[in-house]
């Protein structure tokens, strides 16, 4: 187990001291300068207005507003991909400025955590095969590095998507495809097959599930087999040698004829031309020598595309609420209508009007009262997640989970910004991410498996993290002479749950500590309490 | 002070905390579950899943007299009149325990949808999340005295369709315990083991300490979850309870195959599927209700979906059968010799069959129209082949069987009423097998 550098304990304790002295904390308020963009607030209010109307119509009583403690944990998880450090939580909770929630949103939007977290989320959405199928794992670093650059420099969403679809693939690169900073993994996980690329493009960027129309007219939807192959024709330039071994598709043997505009449908003789899903034909003559993929990219990111912007805002919305306005997020169809079409339209229009700016979209969503509701249910009508009337329990991504665990226990994670291609598959992070990768389709259905429970209860990592000899956080707290028992307990709660214990918990856990626990040793009892906090659903879930 | 807890000492902790948990009512759903009257049946089920869609012609429905049959020869079996592919010589000798169904007809030729269909009995549609076979059957079959999870899945290949392997609307308490094999030894002396990691508490944690921790955790969970309903919280608490129960049970010894006779282990085949079948028998013996064992690869037959033989079908299927044949035959013999077969239904199937016509890559493509599955054990009238296909294999010529019928048959063989319903996530009661289906009369 790697450790944080020794000065961490000191830093942590200094942070504690700072906040323990109320006067110091007061001086700190007002330091931050929130960027209060009135138009962000205006759109957020419109969203809330629509939701409130729907609550009235459906006789829903929304939950109370989230407390600062609830808000700060949720926001860090959603924006930075981890829970706040003790010092970060304390600083926010002590801040008295009325704009502090907006300010911390801004602060996190410009943090490396935001870039890292959004890279992971977007990668999982665009190349899900890279995590589900071991043979594609090696494609992750190159794709991540490419996405990372774009998100870090604030590229607009349409720029990112256009760059993927129209990417100039380095087909001759062969095995090196995996280790270039490029979006090529989008093509590689689909084995450069026009059918897979058509289905993947429609699903990832438009939320349209064409997949089944490959073999037959879609049984429950409007899509025909013809339309599927019309879409595939945009990718028809890829061809592979006839005698290729299907089990080992060799990417370097594939060539691309960028002039190809039609494709032979499996099991039929006719050539099917490239036609957009809306039924319009590309105007090839006016496009000069632009390739079908470039033309497809233009059509997809066009502001008049009926799905593109809605799909994007729906995905980001789902990231913040655990559920899309259309849910599953990538299933836009007549049979799966949005819960709040006006919200979807409003956010999509705003997204387009602001040049597909992802950060603005995040600002708007985070500014809504809906996002800032409590997770505590006060009325039965809050049970239905589609009402967005309460912050429901939802699973973390495995990356969010491990990064939060590392934050809580003071585990130092080296990040190789100099070379993101170095991937240690045996690192604790890699092993936890593997173990905690869920099979549920929605974060609202996240399941803790027995194997996960056993790892958290008995595994080496948690054992070290709750050991008086090995745990950074625990050691810093236990051995800090200036803290009272109550303050120590409070710090452990802040480290794991980003909140102070309730009065009842203060009593219950305080008594346990005071008695020295079952081992008659207050320090060991402290380890017990920390173990309990780390094993709780409150720690494991977002809420 | 006791610093090293032993298993025996630790056993105290689970009982106590479980009681404490139940008494404090922190888990109303578990309590409700325990209160449900379970069916008075001792039936169990093993599903041998052939990921990718196995070729019927090279397994249970050979056509040596037609060009569609390719080079595959047919051999006699222990049941006069039933002939199967030469790829399965050992299975041929246990045909008296098996009933091939040669007339499956399912209309779904896409891996994802077909995997869903064959695993749940329903086509994926709309918002309803149908539970997988292991979930809805183990819910009916569960033996509450068993300390192991009622549904164990060995080496699943879930990439085609994660949803086809989950409990769907039944919720997390009916999820499988997933165990993956690990390979040990060198190439000449390979062995396979199954280990459930982290079953023992850390060395320096005493049993009293572990007990205190669980008690405190229970109260923390109670306070947090009482006004935060939802599947993720429920699942978390339930999995901890199941984990604790397993930690303290001697039944986990079932995962350790070392105590088995070497000859028997060799007979099953020293590969993940062969040893997985042996594990399945041991788990059934220990009270587990449903075990799924996946076969999706063999040396010389691809990775995740080895049965998906679009190319080089004949060699690939031969290699896969080299793994399947000894494992399947030994499992049937082993179950029979131990008196377990009467109560254990063994299902052999994949998501669809393969095209009778051989394609230009010496392969066979997806074919749901006329293909084979096999049932055995649990009172199934074995020693007969049910249904038939036409001479060229392209049509069902006798007794077509649809998925819903197969599902009803499986339920009834397990002494479960297939019209039993569960409340779905959309508030609609869903029967185990789709409305209007009935089981295959000639087989039960």
From TrEMBL, chain A:
Coiled coil: none annotated. The keyword Signal applies. The keyword Signal applies. Residues 47-237 form the DUF1549 domain. Residues 1-24 form the signal peptide. Residues 293-410 form the DUF1553 domain. Keywords: Signal. This is DUF1553 domain-containing protein. It comes from Fuerstiella marisgermanici.
TrEMBL record, chain B:
Residues 56-77 are annotated as: Disordered. Keywords: Signal. It comes from the Bacteria. The keyword Signal applies. The keyword Acetylation does not apply. SUPFAM superfamilies: Alkaline phosphatase-like. This is DUF1501 domain-containing protein. It comes from Fuerstiella marisgermanici.
């Amino acid at each position: 187990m790697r450790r944080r550098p020794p000065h961490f304990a000191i830093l942590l304790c200094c942070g504690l001291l700072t906040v323990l002295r109320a006067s110091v904390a007061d001086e700190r308020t007002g330091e931050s300068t929130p960027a209060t963009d009135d138009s962000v607030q205006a759109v957020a209010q419109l969203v809330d207005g629509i939701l409130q109307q729907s609550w009235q119509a459906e006789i829903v009583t929304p939950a109370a507003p989230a407390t600062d403690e609830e808000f700060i944990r949720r926001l860090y998880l959603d924006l930075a991909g981890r829970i706040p450090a003790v010092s970060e939580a304390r600083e926010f909770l002590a801040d008295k400025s009325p704009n502090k929630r907006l300010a911390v949103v801004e602060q996190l939007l410009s943090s490396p955590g935001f870039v890292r977290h959004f890279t992971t989320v977007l990668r999982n959405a665009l190349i899900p095969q890279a995590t589900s199928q071991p043979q594609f794992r090696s494609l992750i670093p190159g794709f991540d590095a490419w996405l990372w650059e774009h998100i870090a420099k604030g590229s607009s969403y349409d720029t990112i998507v256009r760059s993927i679809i129209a990417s100039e693939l380095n087909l001759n690169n062969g095995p090196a495809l995996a280790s270039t900073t490029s979006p090529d993994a989008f093509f590689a996980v689909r084995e450069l097959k026009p059918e897979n690329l058509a289905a993947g493009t429609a699903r990832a960027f438009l939320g349209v599930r064409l997949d089944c129309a490959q073999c037959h007219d879609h049984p429950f939807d409007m899509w025909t087999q013809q339309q599927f192959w019309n879409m595939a024709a945009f990718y028809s330039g890829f061809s592979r040698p006839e005698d290729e071994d299907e089990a080992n598709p060799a990417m370097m043997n594939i060539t691309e004829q960028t002039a190809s505009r039609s494709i032979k449908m499996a099991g039929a003789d006719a050539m099917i031309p490239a036609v957009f899903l809306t039924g319009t034909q590309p105007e090839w003559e006016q496009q000069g020598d632009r390739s079908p993929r470039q033309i497809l990219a233009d059509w997809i990111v066009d502001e008049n595309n009926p799905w593109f912007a809605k799909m994007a805002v729906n995905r980001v919305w789902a990231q913040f609420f655990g559920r899309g306005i259309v849910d599953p997020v990538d299933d836009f169809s007549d049979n799966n209508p949005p819960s709040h079409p006006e919200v979807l339209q409003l956010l999509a229009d705003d997204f387009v009007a602001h040049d597909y700016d992802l950060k603005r979209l995040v600002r708007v969503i985070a500014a809504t009262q809906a996002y800032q509701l409590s997770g505590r249910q006060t009325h039965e009508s809050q049970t239905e997640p589609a009402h967005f009337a309460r912050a429901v329990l939802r699973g973390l991504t495995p990356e969010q989970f491990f990064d939060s665990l590392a934050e809580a226990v003071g585990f130092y994670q080296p990040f190789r910004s100099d070379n993101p291609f170095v991937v240690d598959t045996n690192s604790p992070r890699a092993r936890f991410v593997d173990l905690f990768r869920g099979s549920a389709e929605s974060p609202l259905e996240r399941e803790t498996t027995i194997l996960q429970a056993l790892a958290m209860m008995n595994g080496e990592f948690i054992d070290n993290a709750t050991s008086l000899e090995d745990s950074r956080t625990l050691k810093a707290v236990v051995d800090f002479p200036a803290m009272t028992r109550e303050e120590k307990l409070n710090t452990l709660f802040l480290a794991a749950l980003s909140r102070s214990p309730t009065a009842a918990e203060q009593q219950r856990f305080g008594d346990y500590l005071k008695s020295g626990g079952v081992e008659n040793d207050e320090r060991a009892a402290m380890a017990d309490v920390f173990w309990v906090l780390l094993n709780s659903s409150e720690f494991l879930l977002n809420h | 002070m006791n610093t090293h807890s032993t298993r025996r000492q630790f056993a105290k902790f689970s009982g106590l905390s479980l009681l404490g948990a139940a008494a404090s009512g922190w888990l109303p759903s578990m309590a409700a579950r325990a209160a449900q009257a379970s069916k008075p049946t001792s039936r169990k089920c093993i599903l041998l899943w052939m990921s990718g869609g196995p070729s019927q012609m090279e397994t249970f429905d050979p056509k040596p007299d037609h060009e569609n049959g390719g080079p595959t020869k047919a051999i006699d079996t222990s049941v006069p009149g039933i002939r199967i592919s030469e790829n399965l010589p050992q299975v041929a000798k246990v045909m008296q325990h098996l009933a091939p169904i040669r007339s499956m007809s399912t209309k779904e030729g896409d891996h994802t949808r077909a995997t869903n269909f064959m695993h749940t009995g329903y086509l994926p549609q709309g918002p309803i999340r149908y539970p997988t076979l292991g979930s809805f059957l183990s819910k009916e079959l569960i033996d509450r005295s068993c300390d192991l999870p009622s549904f164990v899945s060995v080496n699943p290949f879930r990439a085609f369709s994660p949803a086809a392997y989950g409990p769907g609307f039944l919720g997390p308490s009916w999820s499988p315990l997933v165990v993956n094999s690990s390979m040990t030894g060198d190439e000449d002396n390979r062995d396979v083991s199954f280990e459930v990691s982290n079953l023992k508490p850390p060395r320096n944690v005493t049993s009293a300490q572990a007990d205190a921790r669980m008690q405190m955790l229970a109260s923390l969970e109670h306070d947090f979850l009482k006004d935060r309903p939802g599947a993720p919280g429920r699942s978390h608490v339930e999995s901890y309870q199941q984990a604790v129960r397993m930690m303290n049970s001697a039944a986990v010894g079932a995962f350790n195959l070392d105590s088995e006779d070497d000859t028997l282990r060799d007979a099953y085949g020293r590969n993940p599927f062969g040893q997985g079948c042996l594990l399945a028998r041991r788990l059934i013996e220990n009270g587990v209700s449903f075990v799924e064992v996946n076969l999706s690869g063999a040396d010389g037959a691809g990775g995740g979906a080895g049965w998906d033989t679009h190319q080089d079908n004949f060699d690939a299927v031969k290699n896969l059968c080299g793994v399947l044949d000894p494992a399947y035959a030994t499992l049937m013999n082993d179950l029979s010799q131990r008196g377990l077969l009467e109560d254990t239904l063994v299902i052999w199937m994949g998501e669809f069959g393969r095209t009778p016509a051989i394609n230009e890559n010496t392969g066979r493509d997806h074919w749901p129209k006329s293909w084979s599955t096999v049932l055995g054990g649990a009172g199934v009238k074995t020693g007969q082949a049910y249904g038939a296909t036409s001479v060229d294999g392209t049509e069902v010529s006798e007794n077509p069987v649809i998925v819903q019928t197969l599902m009803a048959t499986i339920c009834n063989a397990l002494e479960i009423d297939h019209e039993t319903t569960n409340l779905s996530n959309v508030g609609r009661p869903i029967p185990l097998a789709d409305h209007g289906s009935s089981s295959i009369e000639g087989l039960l």
